[in-house]
Structures are given as C-alpha cells and as structure tokens.
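Sat 14:20. Reprocessing the chain from the morning session after the first attempt stalled halfway. Input below, unchanged.
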Amino acid sequence: MKHGKKYAEAAKLVDRSTLYDTADAIALVKKTATAKFDETVEVHIKTGCDGRHAEQQVRGAVVLPNGTGTITLPLNLPALGRRQLLYFIFRFSRNLCFC
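Finished this time. Tokens:
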C-alpha cells in the first residue's frame, strides 16, 4: 500500500523497535503531526484485567478542558407560560436540562 510524502517523512522519524516513555512519545507525536486540525492520539494499555468479569472492568471518565462546546439551559417549568414553554422546546430542544 502506497503512502504519501508527508507520511513517509513522518515514518522516518519513528523507530518502531523503541519503547518511548510518555514525554518522548508526546514530543514525537507533536513533531510528526501534519494535519491542519487537532489530531487524535489513541492509547492502548495492558491492564491484565478480564473484561468478562464485572469486578475486573476498568472504566473512567475524562473531563474536557473546555467542555463539549454545548450550552445547557436550565428550565423552570412552572414559571413559564404555555407559549414560552413551546418556544423554548422548539428553539433549544438539544440544550434543555429539565430541573
């Protein structure tokens, strides 16, 4: 399978037989980045856990530094009239938080 020029140049910088530590790996990723957008890095970690057993499952959550970019509007239902309520539902239906 053929690859482009930029891929070939970036592949020359990476030694596949070397196990990089975290700081060097991040520096290498930034050095080989060629896209005009924020690129994604995929990380694989061997934990030695068997995911078929509930007590061994590893789960976590990551808080993004700027959130997901969506705005959540709290909506006080009893305080709104019927027209206002319908307007808010149709206008902001993706961003509503009924509380």
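Helices lie at 5-13, 22-32, 82-91.
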